[in-house]
Amino acid sequence: MNEQQRKLAWITGANGLIGNYLVRTALRFAPHWRVRALTRDQLDLLDFDAVGREFQKDKPQLVIHCAALTVVAEAQANPALARRVNVEVTKLLAELAAEVRFVFFSSDLVFDGRKGNYLETDATNPLHIYGETKAAAEQIVLKNPRHLVVRTSLNGGVSRTGNRGFNEQLRLALQAGQGMTLFTDEFRCPIPALETARAVWELENKNCTGLFQVAGAEKLSRWQIGQLLAKRRPELASKIKPGSARDFPGPPRALDTSLNIARAQKILSTPLPGLSEWLAANPDEKL
What we know:
By secondary structure, the chain is an alpha/beta fold. It has a single domain, classed as 3-Layer(aba) Sandwich (Rossmann fold), CATH 3.40.50. It contains 10 helices and 12 strands. It has a 6-stranded parallel beta sheet with strand order 2-1-3-4-5-10, with helices on both faces. Strands 6-9 form a two-stranded parallel ribbon. The relative contact order is 0.15.
């Protein structure tokens, strides 16, 4: 298939962790798509008129929307910006892509963390602005039966900016001379961004619609994640210490937002791995 025969896909947030992995793996996992990697420098998504003009010019047949304001504390400090970026931009793109395929990334933080092992059918109840914006955007996207929402958890890997993966954030804090307290009572389902990209491309290739949860197959505390990373980087071990999320002075924290991924696992040809399993099987992959 030559370049002209391949359909065009937009990927927003292409400088982010998941967006970058989707761009990098497109030829491998979705060779029938020709990707345009959209970054903030290339197209400001907050300039709605410019986005509309560019969409009409390109006429993409698929939009994978990864761009977002994702830092919980930043969203809490600037709720108006969080809503504009996470909700209004999503609404604009979903409307522009009303007749084509649209994939939106959401978060396990739409849940309050009181029970864990959340299903796609469980009611959302976010504890902070970031979670509220993601839950609101989910509802907008799911109104269109052509569209797909992917809820994910902590993603790890190598980002262009070097600060997007959970592994990178830990390493940067420690390189800055800071010790780090990792919570023993806050649980997520971490996953390498490479596996997220693989799964999302497969869901797209199979024309899946609606809501799917794509996360690691293993529920781990922040402390357990740190311990796993320290096996690869022994210098981390002496700089991390266990603590409780209940003592955290910042925005409210959901203690167990682990996701039930059975629905996605039934569709995917390769199962979503747990983090410890993936690290053991991929000793040369950076994380």
